[in-house]
Amino acid sequence: MVQMGRRFWIEKWVIDGYKSLTLRGRPYISDEEMLEIGPVAAFQLMRLREERITFHGSGGWKVLDVDAAIRKVFSQELTSIAAEENKCESVEMLRSDH
Prior knowledge:
The protein is built from 6 helices and 2 strands. The protein is mainly α. The chain has one domain (2-97). Strands 1-2 form a two-stranded antiparallel sheet. A hairpin with a 5-residue loop joins strand 1 (53-55) and strand 2. Helix 1 (2-8) packs antiparallel against helix 2 and helix 2 (11-23) packs across helix 5. The relative contact order is 0.15.
């Protein structure tokens, strides 16, 4: 889903793909998935997977807001995709006006 979102400039698909890789039960991101999303993104997602639920001593368990964390970690990529998505939407609106 990440690659499709990147290819077609659809921010929601990229976020949903990252969330899926972060929240799923499997304990790892496969080699194939790493090649598709890139090693840096795969590493960042593995870190988020580890941070999802952590114990903070007397503070108890902390559950990570995955959506907010993905938006923060991948903010530069998501901003770029959103900008391109908006350009495409503007072009579509112009086409539909004629």
